């Protein structure tokens, strides 16, 4: 323990007296009973009602909200892309590519394209031309269980 000088003790006492005066002027007595009583009075004025819940029915879950729940996600945009093939290439070779260069892919001619939604394979298809625009005809759709398995 350190010993305080008589001057230091006098300064601490004076500071404590100033704080006591300021608290008295502000109406704070250091007791919290008045505050607790005000809170108790305010809470007793509030009308308390029991919560009301919908009756639960036994059996199959209700599906009356299924359509509205599905409608909430129908306008969420997703990215649909087709993958012709891919390859791995060294950066040295990548930097040497020029107009007219040929990059060999990992697929054979005539093999179906992969159809991806947000990067997840959902189907395979073949390229078609409709009104001078490219399109894809789906030839095989991946089952939902297979899609989930591939996500893991």
UniProtKB/TrEMBL annotation:
Compositionally biased residues, Low complexity: 13-27
InterPro entries, sorted: FliN, FliN-like_C, FliN/MopA/SpaO, FliN_T3SS_HrcQb, SpoA-like_sf
Main location as per UniProt: membrane
Ranges of residues in domain Flagellar motor switch protein FliN-like C-terminal: 72-142
Entry's transmembrane regions: none
Keywords: Bacterial flagellum, Cell membrane, Cell projection, Chemotaxis, Cilium, Flagellar rotation, Flagellum, Membrane
Compartments (UniProt record): Cell membrane; Bacterial flagellum basal body
Family matches, as Gene3D superfamilies: SpoA-like (2.30.330.10)
Topology term for the membrane: Peripheral membrane protein
SUPFAM superfamilies on file: Surface presentation of antigens (SPOA)
A Pfam match: FliMN_C
Free-text function comment from the UniProt entry: FliN is one of three proteins (FliG, FliN, FliM) that form the rotor-mounted switch complex (C ring), located at the base of the basal body. This complex interacts with the CheY and CheZ chemotaxis proteins, in addition to contacting components of the motor that determine the direction of flagellar rotation.
Family designation: Belongs to the FliN/MopA/SpaO family.
NCBIfam families in the record: fliN
Protein name per its UniProtKB record: Flagellar motor switch protein FliN
Organism annotation: Marinomonas phaeophyticola
């Amino acid at each position: 323990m350190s010993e305080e000088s008589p001057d230091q003790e006098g300064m601490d006492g004076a500071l404590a007296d100033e704080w006591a005066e300021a608290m008295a002027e502000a109406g704070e007595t250091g007791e919290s009973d008045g505050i607790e009583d005000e809170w108790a009075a305010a809470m007793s004025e509030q009308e308390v009602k029991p919560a009301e819940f919908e009756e639960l029915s036994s059996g199959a879950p209700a599906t009356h909200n299924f359509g509205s729940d599905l409608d909430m996600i129908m306008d969420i945009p997703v990215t649909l892309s087709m993958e012709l093939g891919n390859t791995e290439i060294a950066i040295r070779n990548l930097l040497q590519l020029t107009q007219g260069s040929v990059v060999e892919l990992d697929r054979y001619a005539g093999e179906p394209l992969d159809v991806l939604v947000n990067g997840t394979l959902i189907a395979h298809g073949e390229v078609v031309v409709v009104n001078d625009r490219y399109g894809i005809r789906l030839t095989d759709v991946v089952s939902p269980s297979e899609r989930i398995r591939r996500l893991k």
